[in-house]
Design goal:
single chain; Ald_DH_N
Length: 493
């Protein structure tokens, strides 16, 4: 079934390179499927290495003029882009829900979240201030100037197809950079729609280019950008193995990198916590987008004294979640993105059971008149989880909560930090001294204290250890698209 929008031209079906919406160089197409049914409902170009090179040619040619545009004018274009995103929230939300699977309410919410980054960086464009440095001698002026890095290659994931492209492209444009972008093969439609709206907002030809490509062809597209010295920065959100490959392959040209990679977020409930608040915080953090977010709690630790009470409350809330397609108004959990996702969830649950875990609620695929497709999985709570289990070592990326009982603060901090990842961490406590001890002890780029909803455009988003480096959002997010030039002028006395 085709997707009908108020503005059907928001599904251009082609990729933007320079001023032209065009097919792939060999005219091959990539099918886009609905994860609720696995049925094909659209297609986009399956881009090639030649398309990737053409995109860099266009971005490189457009860079001198774009960087010379006054920051206030760049900001005005971004503000128009924000306004267009807000005006077309319903169409964009429907696109997200159809190609990614999240309920329509979440799709609309993602559009608002994506637009918030565009608005934020529109305002930050006019605040990219340098510094005047006190000179050590008379007759000298010393300055630190902020300048755009150049052509940026943005590689975005499927789980937030609007928010991730906005979070990368908006600061790049605000800084005066030009962009080549490759969205995830599962969710290219939302990205194409946003780029079309950016073009309508006044982004000049060549400043923003998008190449869509299949899983098979993605390496040839990205390898062109990695090898090209004209591409001065790579920004990527995705898995740690791919991030490591990008870092290695960028070394020959010493590109600047922003890598937002895998996570294994702990969620800790201490015995002095407000249990009802902790349950609500976990529901918000874990089940957004069906558990398919990089900051989802992946390991839940509950102190022994409150373990059983917490699990009872949690199981009641999880068991009441409504699973179904995005088209159903009551759906709270949609389908997983594809068969690979479902297979990983099943593998993690079966491994946990084999190693001594017990299912409290859920624990199986769903197939019914409401969930009439292969990619639905029941929201699940497991108890008796431990560090040996795959669900404790790998991101499940699905609606599964493994709960581990712990005794002491020192024990749980050691367990929480016993991972190569360090993106997000959460804990609930009402002891102000403990709050500061644990906040400082957790090895994580983001910490939620008595809060399950972390992301905001004004906050720096990113990890430590093997969760990557660089920050998105906030003033630090703009700085990641700029370099600092030191200017020393003498002979002034």
């Amino acid at each position: 079934m085709t997707l009908t929008l108020e503005r059907q031209d928001l599904m251009p079906g082609t990729q933007l390179i320079g001023a032209d919406w065009r097919e792939a160089s060999d005219e091959r197409r990539l099918d886009v499927t609905d994860p609720a049914t696995d049925a094909v409902f659209a297609s986009v170009p399956d881009g090639t290495a030649a398309d990737a090179r053409a995109a860099v040619d266009a971005a490189h040619a457009a860079f001198p003029a774009w960087r010379a545009v006054p920051a206030k004018q760049r900001a005005a274009i971004l503000k128009r882009w924000n306004d267009l995103m807000v005006a077309h929230q319903e169409d964009l939300g429907r696109l997200i829900s159809r190609e990614q699977g999240k309920p329509l309410a979440e799709g609309r919410g993602e559009v608002a979240y994506a637009a918030s980054y565009v608005e934020w960086f529109a305002e930050e464009a006019t605040r990219a201030n340098g510094e005047v440095i006190p000179a050590p001698v008379n007759g000298r002026r010393m300055l630190a100037l902020k300048e755009p890095v150049g052509v940026v290659a943005a590689i975005t994931p499927w789980n937030f197809p609007a928010a991730m492209i906005a979070r990368k492209i908006a600061p790049a444009l605000a800084a005066g950079c030009t962009v080549v972008c490759k969205p995830a093969e599962d969710t290219p439609l939302t990205s194409l729609a946003l780029v079309k709206l950016a073009q309508e907002a006044g982004v000049p030809a060549g400043v923003l280019n998008i190449v869509t490509a299949s899983r098979e062809r993605t390496p040839e597209v990205v390898d062109v950008w990695l090898a090209d010295a004209r591409v001065r920065k790579i920004t990527f959100t995705g898995s740690t193995p791919v991030g490591k490959h990008l870092a290695r392959a960028s070394a020959d040209t010493l590109k600047k990198l922003s890598l937002e990679l895998g996570g294994n977020a702990p969620f800790i409930v201490f015995d002095d916590a407000d249990l009802d608040a902790a349950v609500e915080g976990l529901m918000a953090a874990k089940f957004r987008n069906g558990g398919q977010t990089c900051v989802c709690p992946n390991r839940v630790f509950v102190q022994a004294k409150v373990h059983d009470a917490f699990v009872d409350k949690l199981a009641t809330r999880v068991g009441a979640l409504q699973v179904g397609p995005a088209t159903e108004p009551g759906s709270q959990i949609g389908p997983m993105i594809n068969a690979r996702a479902i297979e990983k969830i099943e593998r993690h649950v079966q491994d946990a059971l084999a190693r001594g875990a017990r299912i409290v609620v859920g624990g199986q695929r769903l197939r019914s008149a409401r969930c009439d497709g292969p990619n639905y999985y029941a929201p699940t709570v497991l108890v008796n989880a431990d560090a040996r289990m795959a669900c404790s070592c790998e991101e499940t990326f699905g609606p599964v909560v493994p709960v581990t009982r712990f005794d002491s603060e020192a024990e749980v901090i050691a367990a929480a930090n016993d991972t190569p990842f360090g993106l997000a961490a959460y804990f609930y406590s009402t002891d102000v001294r403990r709050i500061w001890r644990v906040t400082q002890a957790l090895e994580s780029g983001i910490v939620g204290v008595n809060e399950g909803a972390l992301a905001a455009e004004a906050a720096p988003f990113g990890g430590v250890k093997e969760s990557g480096y660089g920050r998105e959002g906030s003033v630090h997010g703009l700085d990641d698209y700029m370099h600092t030039k030191y200017v020393c002028e003498g002979g002034l006395s």
